[in-house]
Amino acid sequence: MIRKNKLSVDNLLTLTKQHETSIGFFWYGFAIYILFFFLASAETPFLSPASCQGFQIIGFGLMGLGGVGLMKFKFDNGYLKTLFIINLLYAFTIVLRGSEYDKDALKQMFLDITFGILPYFASVVMLLPRNIAHYKKIFFVLLVLSFFFLVGVVMFFDILRDYDRLNLISQGLVENLSTLLSLPIGFYLLNYVYHTDKKALLGLGIKNLFALFIILVTIYFAIFRARRGLIFMCGSTLACFAMIYIISTKRTMLIIGMAVIFIAGGSYYLTNVKTPAMLNYLIDRGDADTRTGVEVYMYEDMSPVDWVIGKGIKGSYYCPVVDNVNDAEGLGYRDNIETGYLQIILKGGIISLALLLLIFIPAVYKGFFKSRNILSKAAAMWIFLWIIYLYPSGGMVFNMNYVLVWISTGICYSDKIRDLDDETIKTHLQA
Questions:
Q1: Mind listing the pLDDT tens digit for each residue in 105-114?
Q2: Taking a C-beta distance cutoff of 8 angstroms, is the pair 131, 15 a contact?
Q3: Which 3 state secondary structure label does DSSP give 276?
Q4: Predicted confidence (pLDDT) per residue in 3-18, tens digit
Q5: H or E element that contains 334
């Protein structure tokens, strides 16, 4: 019985009923955790932040319940194993430097996806089964999160569409809705070949069209609120999807022809028609530099030692020109910076950033150039995009985007998964 169970875990394609249940606990717990973090940040009138935190604790408990019996300290690559251990141990040093243990500090530690400890230990998801049945569950959870994105759009539509361009509540709502619930569907799109339906438009299938719709809705609100980083993230995801679509489709010339017509038509419209009102704010912002001043303050507040090892999980820098919600004393210190790679350096130094890149860059190479299937190439693209996003986004955040980076890393370092053919993967994902 034990041997049979071990064989099932080691199988690349299927899971036992027990492990399927555990996987469900983990990912549904994760979805609950993320969803109620969003609701807490949105300050909904029908649910208090304390109630949301209660549901987050339930979600966290489900993740622990599901993960504890599934995670195996087993790696497909010795290089990855060594760096995983070093990175995990170094993460402990970041957390220990500056941690506090009163009630409020503990709540932030475990329930805050940005300033808590979970981003530093997100890599442990690589210890979950590297298995097609597991990835099938992940794809389903991506659809669930996207569904709740649409629910959120309906619930908060009036705030999202507020024409007051300086409304920070609306701005934050757009960013949280997008980064927590809609952007992860991009990973689903990159793997579109496994969810196709020949009878649907362009052979994409209903689920792929739904995923594409979610990204387009996200772009709409990103343009409306002139969130340039978010527009770039959505646009680059669509570009990668288009690249995979063109590579894998047998109607390459038709697709290229349609793209040329679409681009030409769009160019004509933009040059000959009055600019739509919703684009005015984006155009007004144009190439306005909103970060250099903040970055200069950070540079001036960092010592040589800080650059190497960072300031720890509570690390901050003097920046009196921007308000900080965590600066209760009003001393002018900020504990975050919008530039992702600088945020990593602020907390863990260049060592932290270097460890991540030493893990991720070889994964991208293996996934792109040493694989036989779209799953591995899509995983490599997802990691690559996250590295690129270290400038326009906030870096390490315990959301689905970042967790998928580590799931993708496990895929790219697995010789066995990279060697699977697309037909085998598709058969088991659609089973």
A1: 899 999 999 9
A2: yes
A3: coil
A4: 444 434 348 888 889 9
A5: strand 333-334
Amino acid in the structure at residue 23:
I
Distance CA 307, CA 5 (A): 47
Q: 304 exposed, middle or buried (CB, 10 Å; 0-12, 13-18, 19+)?
A: exposed
Query: Do the beta carbons of residue 409 and residue 359 sit within 8 Å?
Result: yes
Of 116, 134, 94, which is closest to residue 33 (Cα–Cα)?
116
> Is 278 exposed, middle or buried, given 0-12, 13-18 or 19+ CB atoms closer than 10 A?
middle
Q: How many residues does the chain have?
A: 431
Whether the model pTM is above 0.85? yes
Distance CA 83, CA 127 (A): 14
CA 247/CA 294 separation, integer angstroms: 42
Residue 252, Cβ neighbours under 10 Å: how many? 12
Q: How does pLDDT run across 132-152, given as a tens digit for each residue?
A: 999 999 999 999 999 999 999
Which positions ≥6 away from 308 have C-beta within 8 Å? Answer: 349, 350, 351
The conformational region for residue 203 under phi > 0 = left, psi -120 to 50 = alpha, else beta, is left
How far apart CA 425 and CA 373 sit, in angstroms, is 8
